[in-house]
Specification:
Distance between the termini: 55 Å
CATH architecture of the largest domain: Orthogonal Bundle
Number of domains: 2
Order of helices and strands: HHHHHHHHH
Bound molecules: fe (ii) ion
Low-confidence stretches: none
Radius of gyration: 17 Å
Structural class: mainly alpha
Amino acid sequence: MKTLTLSDLETLTRTDGEDWSLSHVRRLLRLTEDIGAELTYDLHAYTIAVYLHDWGAFARYQKSGIEHALRSRQIAETDILPQMDLTPAQVTLILDAIELHDYRDPRPVTSTEALLLREADFLDFLGVIGMAREFARGPKDLVACYRRVISRREALRGRFTLPRAQTLAAVRLERLAQCLTWLEEESLGYL
Ligand SMILES: [Fe+2]
Ligand SMILES: [Fe+2]
């Protein structure tokens, strides 16, 4: 029986997920209202993909040797989507968007939904929020977190294609640069 609803996914993300996950999902959905305002896409399928896209990174689901985006796809395909009322086309769209979301994946996206998920996820790595996420992730080593902020920023720079995402990315890159300058200044050479 098809019993799982969007509200169940929200509950599962809260109960089975990690502390960072539900707020990350909510930010991506909110960002998408902005960057996808001019686009036509399947909001229901997209929302499901956003909820599920990082489940493969949760400690309870991750598997060593399997990249988190692919692991998220596997969980969605075997455990979650069969319990939801979706067309075969929606299932394909959700699974592909999940698998292709990570910025380290060089493959082109195959749908508007996949593009929106990627670029919303990219944006959440930038700006003050992106920096806060990196330091919250740990380890308790400022230099390691600082280096990860820089490396993600460099990997994401120039990757945005949606006009509104490009505008938001420019603002976030500028804010991040300012914050890093302040961080370096206040570390007094002892970062
Ligand atoms: Fe991810
Ligand atoms: Fe994510």
